[in-house]
Design goal:
The complex is a heterodimer of chains A (236) and B (291).
Chain A lengths: L1 E12 L2 E12 L3 E6 L5 H8 L7 E6 L2 E2 L5 H6 L2 E4 L11 H8 L3 H5 L1 H11 L1 H5 L10 H13 L5 E5 L7 H16 L3 E6 L2 H7 L2 E6 L2 E7 H6 L1 H8 L2
Parallel strand pairs in A: 3-8, 3-9, 6-7, 7-8
Antiparallel strand pairs in A: 1-2, 1-4, 4-5, 9-10
Chain B lengths: L5 H29 L6 H17 L5 H30 L4 H22 L13 E4 L2 E4 H23 L1 H11 L1 H6 L4 H23 L11 H14 L4 H21 L5 H15 L11
Antiparallel strand pairs in B: 1-2
Classes of the chains: A alpha/beta (236), B mainly alpha (291).
Chain lengths: 236, 291
């Protein structure tokens, strides 16, 4: 059964259309990669799902309930969480307060303690640095914090935008390992990546976007194995 | 009266400074969270003063209740003003001018509204806290002791709210990165509304403490607001610590300065500090540089 479904979504900013009929489906407990060049509309897909950009046409549903038209707050409280590109941790808040901010909705707030334990279990480094200002963390640690903060909301679906951006190869491995562990905990992950090679290694399925349209959808192996797609859209 | 008593000057400075700090912390909180300057801050101070006056003189309630009414009235008015006026400007403003002009206009409106409704006269109030204490040659009227204590309690309350509560996390997150706060499910318009209400209630608190010393009139908020703006420039806009320490520093410098030269120079000293700080350290003593 589909957890999250987009059908014919069109959206844009201030009259400029960016998405032209996006169909996308996420099933329970899977990692799906959303690939494409810079400016293909990947981030706009995430922003439309999380309610920051209102869809002009088309539908978005979570477990067959409408998400489109809801406020970002309502979408977060239903368990669809967007970890933004560039980490965007709150720099002058401690690590633990950043995490608590992630548990802002009522349901997550009341389970804060257990979730915090789980997140610290997943990211021991964050526990060590819990009283430090988030702005003093390294880039990799900030990415861990941004993902951990997303997990604090107890998501059904976690959408992570460019987690490997600006990280050293070793840290990219660590982040992608975590994505697998998060999926194994029962959370569906939508992974937006420019690093297509690595994303296809962890994802079960992939969508390839160009100019605001889905060009190709299929199993990761099929995407990785198609020379035309590799060359034309993924730069592999 | 008591010559050149340095202890007395310091005490007087702390008393004045704690009120500057109360005013300044409200302005700083609004700036830090909403990125707007509230030039009507002095008029919310005035609302606090008038509410205290009518609660004490017309309703004849206990002073503590009168102060509470002053805070409540101003808080509600602040929430309404934010909801009806500022929100629309904040949601569409790409620069700070619209809210700045709107608060200036609001300031003129509120002053003239008070003038028409209550008249131009100074309304005097008895000291809420009676008595005068003398400690080691320092004269301490009860009202002034109360001012410092109330300021300490208010700062502790604001600091604890920011530090420990869920609402405090929402305020800090919104002030540091509003767009990301939205992704946490934080309803930033609600944060704005309550922050504005709390900030102007701090001004009202200062007014309820100072109204018995000065008096209540339509322009009573002008000087405290100017002083508060000097303090926020001095301490750094958006920094609560800066507002508190900057307020104390300005209070003490004025108090000592007036004793050394003469009382007409009080504002000259304050504005000289303002110019010096702007010149040497424009981000303020505790302010972070804008990123």
């Amino acid at each position: 059964m589909a957890l999250l479904e987009l059908t014919g979504v069109e959206a844009g900013y201030a009259g400029v259309q960016v998405l032209w009929g996006v169909d996308l489906e996420l099933r329970e407990r899977e990692i799906v990669a959303l690939l494409g060049a810079n400016g293909a509309g990947k981030t706009t897909v995430l922003r439309t799902i999380s309610g920051i950009v209102k869809p002009w046409r088309g539908g978005i549903s979570l477990q067959e309930q409408h998400l489109d038209g809801l406020s970002p707050r309502e979408i977060v409280s239903r368990g669809v969480i967007h970890v933004p590109e560039g980490r965007h941790v709150f720099p002058r808040m401690s690590v633990v307060d950043n995490l608590r901010a992630g548990a802002y909705t009522e349901r997550a707030w009341s389970h804060q303690r257990e979730t915090l334990e789980d997140v610290y279990g997943l990211f021991p480094r964050l526990y060590e640095r819990r009283s430090q200002f988030a702005g003093t963390l390294s880039g990799g640690e900030q990415q861990m914090l941004a993902i951990g903060r997303g997990l604090m909301a107890r998501p059904k679906c976690l959408m992570i935008d460019e987690p490997s951006l600006g990280l050293a190869p070793k840290l990219v491995d660590a982040v992608l390992d975590l994505v697998i562990r998060i999926r194994d905990l029962g959370c569906t992950v939508l992974l937006v990546e420019q690093n297509a090679q690595r994303a296809l290694e962890v994802a079960e399925r992939a969508y390839v976007m160009e100019h605001g349209r889905i060009l190709f959808a299929g199993a990761s192996a099929a995407v990785a194995g198609d020379p035309a797609i590799r060359q034309a859209y993924l730069g592999l | 009266m008591h010559g050149f008593n340095i202890a007395q000057l310091l005490v007087d400075g702390v008393v004045a400074g704690s009120m500057y700090a109360l005013m300044a912390s409200g302005i700083s909180l609004i700036w830090g969270t909403m990125r707007m300057l509230n030039f009507a801050h002095g008029e919310f101070y005035m609302i606090g003063g008038y509410t205290l006056f009518f609660a004490l003189v017309a309703l004849k309630v206990h002073p503590v209740i009168a102060v509470g009414l002053g805070l409540l009235m101003t808080f509600i008015l602040g929430v309404v003003v934010e909801r009806l006026i500022m929100r629309w400007l904040l949601l569409r403003a790409e620069w700070e001018m619209p809210t700045l002009v709107a608060t200036l206009g609001l300031s003129v409106f509120m002053q003239n509204f008070a003038l028409r409704t209550f008249g131009a006269g100074d309304l005097g109030l008895p000291y809420v806290v009676p008595g005068v204490f003398r400690v080691a040659g320092v004269v301490l009227p009860g009202q002034r002791i109360a001012i410092v204590l109330v300021a300490i309690v208010a700062f502790a309350a604001v600091w604890s709210i920011l530090r420990y509560t869920k609402f405090g996390i929402a305020i800090r997150a919104t002030s540091q990165d509003r767009d990301t706060a939205v992704l946490m499910g934080i309803d930033f318009p609600k944060v704005y509304m309550l922050t504005f209400g709390i900030s102007v209630a701090l001004a009202a608190l200062a007014a309820t403490m100072l109204a018995p010393i000065y008096s209540v009139n339509p322009w009573m908020g002008q000087r405290p607001m100017l002083k508060a703006f000097i303090v926020v420039v001095f301490g750094g806009l958006g920094s609560l610590e800066g507002a508190v320490l900057g307020g104390m520093a300005l209070g003490i410098i004025e108090s000592v300065g007036v004793a050394v030269v003469s009382s007409e120079w009080q504002d000259v000293i304050a504005f000289a500090i303002l110019i010096l700080v702007l010149w040497i350290r424009p981000q303020g003593l505790f302010g972070a540089k804008e990123s």
